[in-house]
Design goal:
The protein is an alpha+beta fold. It is built from 16 helices and 17 strands. Bound molecules: adenosine-5'-triphosphate. Residues 305, 307, 314-315, 318, 456-459, 502-504, 506-507, 518 line the site of adenosine-5'-triphosphate (ATP).
C-alpha cells in the first residue's frame, strides 16, 4: 500500500536521521582532512630553509613535502649533457666536496651515469649560503639540479660523463641519513683491497652479512645493478624463448595440502585448521596442467625449501623456472629444449648485457662461460667412467656429491671444452618417485641434470604418466598415497607421455657470472639464518 507524501512514516523518519548522520560524518571527515593538511603544511614549513638572510634563497633548499606529493608534472631526469645546454637532473649526491667558501662539487649519480656538478658563487644565481648548503648535503641524498653544461679543459676523473654542470639551482628532494655502509666500500673488489694492503693502506671490506643487513644500499653498487639486470634478462629470455616454441605461462598454487613432494625440506603451515605446506616446486601441478591438455607450459615463481644446508648454493626461497611438455617419443625432446633455451640465454646475455657483465666482473672477476653451440650430453655411466679414469671412486648407482660434480665439470671442460653440459640416465634410486624408469634397464631413469661450471642448475626427466606405476613408485619411495591422491587421480582420465625440468634462477645467474655465493644473486635472500630484510 502506498503512503501519502504529506504524512511521514516512522520509516521515513529513520531514513532522514540516517541521512543527517551521514552528512555529519562527511563534515567531520572533511574537518579531519583539513586539520591533517594543515599539520602537514606546518611540518613541511619547518623543513624549508630559512631564506630571510639570502636574496638567492629560492635557488636552493630542501623541497617541502607538499611539493613532492605529485604537485607538479615535470620530467626531472634529462641527461642530455651537450655543451651549453640547460639541464635538469635528478640523482643521488654521490660525493660532495667544498673548495673554500665559494665553490662546492657534487658528483650526481643516476642509474650508472655520473656527472660532476659545480656550484660557484655568481652574482645572480649562486650565493655563499648556497655553496654552504651544497657542501652540507649528505651523501646519497636525492637532489634536483638545474644548470648549464660545459666541457672543462682538464679530464674529469671518476665520472662516466666528461662534462661538468654549472649549478644554477639545487634542491634536496630526499635527505639521506648517516650511511651504515659507504657505497664506495661496498663496491670495492677483493683485489683492490689486497693491493692497497700491500701498499700499506687498509681499506674497508664490507662482509656479506653487513651487505644483506643494508641491502638497499648494497644494491646501489655497479656490480649489483648489473647482477639484477642480468637476472631480469634471464627471466625475459626464458619467457620469450618458450613462448616462441609454443609454450604458455601458468601459475600454480604455492599453498599445498599435505606435504608437497614429501621429505623433510617442507615449510609446514596451518591452513585454516588443515595441515598444509608451501610448494617445494610446481612439479605436481604443472604435470596436472599437462593432463588438462595444455601441451607445453612454463612457470616463473617462488619455490620454498626448508633447507638445513648452510651452503653457498642453497636458499630457503628461490625463483624456479619450470617447464613441462608433452613428449612424442623420447625424453631427448626435453633435453633439446634445454640445450637450445640455454644457448639462447647465454648468447643473448653476452650480446645485450655487456655493460652489466663488465660491472660484475670489475668487482668479482670471472672468465666468460665456455659453452658449445650444440649442448654436450653425456650419460651418467659415461660420467662415472670419466671420474673412474681420473682415479676418483664413486658409487656407480649412487648420486654424485658436490665434489664429484665439480671434478666431473673439470674433466668435461678439459675433454670437450665446455662448462655447460647435460648428464642423463641417472640411476632410478636417486631420483624422485615420479621419474620414468628407462625402458631397457629399470635401474636407470629417463632423467637428467644440467651443469654450469661443475654445479647443478637443472633437474629434469620424463615423468610417470601411468597412475598405477605412479602409485607404486610413490609407495616405494615411502610417500603416503593419501597425501598425493589428487595428483595421482589426475592421471586416471588419460595422460599424455610428458617430461620437463626445473631451473633455479639465482643459481643460473650465480654460475654464469662465476660468483661464489647464491646470496649475491637473490634480491632478499632467505636462508636458514635469515628471513629479513
Ligand atoms: P641440489 O642437489 O643442488 O640440492 P636439487 O636436486 O634438490 O638441488 P631440484 O629439486 O631438482 O634440485 O631443483 C631444481 C633446481 O632448482 C636445481 O637444479 C637448482 O638450480 C634449484 N635449486 C634447488 N634447490 C635449491 C635451493 N635450496 N636454493 C636455490 N636453488 C635451488
Amino acid at each position: 500500500m502506498s503512503t501519502p507524501e504529506s504524512q511521514p512514516t516512522s520509516e521515513d523518519a529513520a531514513s532522514v536521521s540516517k541521512k543527517a548522520a551521514k552528512k555529519e560524518a562527511a563534515k567531520q571527515e572533511k574537518l579531519r582532512r583539513r586539520q591533517e593538511q594543515e599539520a602537514l603544511a606546518a611540518a613541511t614549513r619547518s623543513l624549508a630553509v630559512d631564506d630571510e638572510q639570502d636574496p638567492l634563497a629560492a635557488n636552493y633548499g630542501d623541497v617541502p613535502l607538499n611539493e613532492i606529493q605529485s604537485k607538479t608534472v615535470e620530467d626531472v631526469s634529462r641527461w642530455n649533457t651537450s655543451e651549453n645546454r640547460s639541464v635538469l637532473i635528478r640523482g643521488r649526491a654521490q660525493t660532495i666536496r667544498a673548495v673554500g667558501k665559494n665553490m662546492a662539487f657534487v658528483v650526481v649519480r643516476e642509474r650508472g651515469f655520473t656527472v660532476q656538478c659545480v656550484a660557484t658563487v655568481q652574482p645572480d644565481t649562486v650565493s655563499r649560503q648556497m655553496v654552504k648548503y651544497v657542501a652540507g648535503l649528505s651523501r646519497e641524498s636525492i637532489i634536483d639540479i638545474e644548470g648549464v653544461v660545459s666541457v672543462p679543459s682538464v679530464e674529469i676523473k671518476g665520472t662516466t660523463q666528461q662534462v661538468e654542470v654549472q649549478v644554477r639551482k639545487l634542491y634536496c628532494v630526499s635527505k639521506a641519513a648517516v650511511l651504515p655502509i659507504n657505497i664506495e666500500d661496498a663496491a670495492r673488489s677483493d683485489a683492490e683491497i689486497e693491493k692497497a694492503l700491500q701498499a700499506g693502506e687498509k681499506l674497508v671490506r664490507v662482509n656479506q652479512d653487513t651487505r644483506l643487513n643494508n641491502r638497499v644500499l648494497d644494491f646501489r653498487t655497479p656490480a649489483n645493478q648489473g647482477i639484477f639486470r642480468i637476472q631480469s634478462q634471464v627471466g625475459t629470455i626464458f619467457r620469450q624463448f618458450l613462448l616462441s616454441e609454443g609454450f604458455f605461462e601458468i601459475h600454480t598454487p604455492k599453498l599445498i595440502a599435505g606435504s608437497s613432494e614429501g621429505g623433510a625440506a617442507v615449510f609446514r603451515l596451518d591452513y585454516k585448521g588443515q595441515p598444509a605446506c608451501l610448494a617445494q616446486s610446481p612439479q605436481l601441478h604443472k604435470q596436472m596442467a599437462i593432463c588438462g591438455d595444455f601441451g607445453r607450459v612454463f612457470e616463473i615463481g617462488g619455490v620454498y625449501r626448508a633447507e638445513d644446508s648452510y651452503t653457498h648454493r642453497h636458499l630457503c626461497e628461490f625463483i624456479g623456472l619450470d617447464v613441462e611438455m608433452e613428449i612424442k617419443s623420447h625424453y631427448s625432446e626435453v633435453m633439446d629444449i634445454v640445450g637450445r633455451l640455454f644457448v639462447t640465454i647465454f648468447d643473448t646475455l653476452n650480446k645485450t648485457c655487456e655493460k652489466e657483465l663488465e660491472a660484475v666482473g670489475r668487482q668479482y672477476p670471472f672468465e666468460p662461460l665456455k659453452y658449445l653451440p650444440e649442448t654436450l650430453r653425456l650419460t651418467f655411466e659415461e660420467g662415472i667412467q670419466m671420474l673412474k679414469d681420473a682415479g676418483i671412486e664413486v658409487d656407480p648407482m649412487g648420486d654424485l656429491n658436490t665434489e664429484a660434480e665439480r671434478k666431473l665439470g673439470q674433466l668435461v671442460l678439459e675433454k670437450y671444452g665446455t662448462e655447460f653440459y647435460i648428464l642423463h640416465r641417472y640411476p632410478l634410486a636417486v631420483r624422485p618417485f615420479y621419474t620414468m624408469p628407462c625402458h631397457d634397464n629399470p635401474a636407470y631413469s629417463n632423467s637428467f641434470d644440467v651443469f654450469i661450471r661443475g654445479e647443478e642448475i637443472i633437474s629434469g626427466a620424463q615423468r610417470v604418466h601411468v597412475p598405477e606405476l605412479l602409485a607404486e613408485r610413490a609407495q616405494a619411495c615411502g610417500i603416503e598415497l593419501k597425501t598425493i591422491s589428487t595428483y595421482i587421480d589426475a592421471f586416471r582420465y588419460g595422460a599424455p607421455p610428458h617430461g620437463g625440468f626445473g631451473v633455479g634462477l639465482e643459481r643460473v645467474v650465480m654460475l654464469f657470472c662465476g660468483l661464489n655465493n647464491i646470496r649475491k644473486t637473490s634480491l632478499f635472500p632467505r636462508d636458514p639464518l635469515r628471513i629479513a630484510p
